Amino acid sequence: MRAARTLALLLATALSACATTTAADDVDSAWRPGYLWQSVAGHLRMLGAARPVDEVLADPATPDDIRQRLELSRALRDYASRVLALPDNASYRRYADLGRPAAVWNVVAAPELSLQLKTWCFPVLGCVGYRGYFDKAEAEQLAAALRAQGWEASVYGVPAYSTLGRLPGSVFADPLLNTFLRGAEIDLVRLVFHELAHQVAYADGDTTFNESYATAVERIGSRQWLAQGGREAQITATDALDRRRAEFRAMTMRARDRLDALYRSAAPDEEKRREKARLLAGLHTEYLRWRDGSWGGDRAYDAWFDSVNNARLGVLAAYNAQVPAFERLFERVGQDWPRFHAEVYRLAALTKVERDAALAQP
C-alpha cells in the first residue's frame, strides 16, 4: 500500500500549502510544500490528460504511429489478463500524451569519493536515494545546487512509473504514455507485463525480490507473446538485446565494485582521485570495445558513458539477481500462471530471510 499512502499523504499536505519554494531552496529535504505540490500536481495533470484507448483510436486526428501502438496495447493488455493471469483492471487502458520525452526526471547524487547515494526523507514514508520532478528544469536546478555543494549529481528521465494499482477507481489507474509508446514493440510489451506484475505481489522494502519477479514475468510473458505470433526473428533479436543489456550490467557492476573497494580503502584522497580517473577511463575503453565489436556499433549507451560519475554508478543495483530463481519457480509449478502468481504472493508476505531461502531452492 506504499504508493497509495504516499499519494494520499502528498495530496493532503500539498493541497493545504502554497507552492512558493523552488528546487534549489533546500537540497537536503524533500518535505517542502513546493516540492510536494509539484509531485501531486504533476501526477494529477497526467491523469487528467488520459483518455480511453478506444476514444483515442476513434479520433481521426490520432497519428498513425500512435494508432498502431494503441491497437497493439489493447491486444497485449487483454493477453496479459487472459493468458498471463495478470490483473484485469483499468491500468494501461487509457492514453495520455504528456508533450515531453519523460514521465518524470530523477535527480541522484553521491559524494566525490563514495557511491553512497544522497537520500531525501519523508515522515512516515522513509528515505529514498533520488528526488523526482515532473519538470526537467527543476530537476536540473536541484542538480546544479548539489554540484555547487560538492556532490556529483545526475539527472535522468524515467519513461514510466507505477502506483502499483493501489489507488481506487479507473480515474487513478496508470495510463499508457507517449514517453514509452513510440519505442520498440517488445519494450512496450515488456513494460506493460512488468508493471502489471507489480500489482500482483509487492514486498515492501525488497527491491531485488520485486524487480526480479516483475522482470521474470516480462521475459517469460514476452516470449510467449512473440511465440504465439510465430515471430521467431523477433525472438532472436530480443534475445540479442537481452544479452547486450546483461553485458552492460556486468561491465558497469564490475567497475562499481572496483570503485567501491577503492573508496572504502585507507588510501589518501589524492591517490583515490587518481585511481578513480584511471578506473573510469578503463570503463569507457571497455565499453568502446563492446560497442564497436560484438554490439555491432550500437550507440544506445553513449550518453550514459559520456556522463558517468559516482551518482550514475551508485544508482545501479542487482535488481535482477533473483530472476533465475523465479524462472525455476515458474517451471516447478508447471508453467501455470495463476499458481505461479499465487506462490509469489505467498512469498511476498514472508520475511526477507524466508523469501531468500525459499527462492534459493534448486
What integer is the average pLDDT?
87
Separate helix tally: 15
Overall helicity: 55-70%
Taking all Cα atoms into account, the compactness measure Rg is 21 Å
Q: Largest sheet, if any?
A: 3 strands, mixed
H/E element sequence: HHEHHEEEEEHEEHHHHHHHHHH
Number of domains: 2
| Major beta sheet, strand line-up | 1-2-8
Residue windows where pLDDT falls under 50 for at least 5 positions: 1-21
Termini separation: 31 Å
Number of strands: 8
| Proportion of residues in extended strands | 5-15%
Features:
single chain, 362 residues, mainly alpha, three-stranded antiparallel beta sheet, 15 helices, globular, disordered N terminus
Descriptive report:
The protein is mainly alpha-helical and 362 residues long. The protein has 15 helices and eight strands. The strands form three sheets. Strands 1-2-8 form a three-stranded mixed β-sheet. Strands 6-3-7 form a three-stranded antiparallel β-sheet. It has a two-stranded antiparallel ribbon with strand order 4-5. The longest helix has 33 residues, at 232-264. It starts with a helix and ends with a helix. Mean pLDDT is 87; it is low at 1-21.
